[in-house]
Design goal:
The protein is of the alpha/beta class. Helices cover 40% and strands 14% of the residues. The chain has one domain: Glycoside hydrolase/deacetylase (TIM Barrel). The strands form two sheets. Strands 1, 2, 3, 6, 8 and 9 form a six-stranded mixed sheet that branches. Strands 4-5-7 form a three-stranded parallel sheet, covered by helices on one side. 36% of the residues are buried.
Amino acid sequence: MKHSRREFLAATGSIVAGAAMPWLPVTRADEAQQKRHIVTLSFDDGFRKSFRRIAEIYEKYQLSACLNVIATGHEEDFQPPGEYIAGSPRGDFGLWNELKQRGHEIMPHTYRHTNLRQVPFDEAIDLIARCLDVFTERLKGFDPKKAVYNFAYNASTPELEKWLAGRVRAFRTGGDAINRWPHPGQVKLTCTSFGPGNCEQAIDQEIERLLARQKGWFIFNTHGLDEEGWGPIRATYLDRLLDRLTGMDSVDVLPAGRALAKYVDAQLEDVSLPKTTERSG
């Protein structure tokens, strides 16, 4: 019988606690120590139909989806930058608040999907600031300092990265799909993508590359399901992939922000604990 991920983690925590010496604290890092590979599928653009279905599939496996939405994508005067966004309705903050309450990660994917490499620096930082302001106002509990900002087209510049680094917890841009394991001070997250056609083969190849490594964090930028969005995947494929990944003891399937929170905060928390505790009595 296959156990849910939540049951598995609970059982693992109990085993670790039982095996530990009674005077040594069991830490969050200890409980996650068996994990060596993190998989983050980072879904962009906020397609209403696809994001509802993505959330349902992740919930089937007690997982949180990584959903990145355009701040103004739902507004009537929004001008889609291309046919892959124009062809499908986007959700609004009513839906994003609902999905966040259900346990999914909702993060900013620009103010209006502008390629910030193609506009002056002052305009680019204004668009980022306006995006973060909308999220602060409209998404319950949103805190920029805990957010992952996802660049449109994964297009950043060194100047924008430097400016943004102190304003959000991290940002996602283009680069190698396999990142270093989450660590203190990690701000820049890199990812790859594939399109405009189906990107399942590209995901499979990158996951095999991840699993061949001793340790690593894989971030792949995808969009909608079935034929929605640029470089889509099938809903049936996502279901099978999550079923496969949750059956691997070494793999943790997490949204980007929660990967940082789980592993970096655990490291910082453990550093603050005393190295040894004398046995009482």
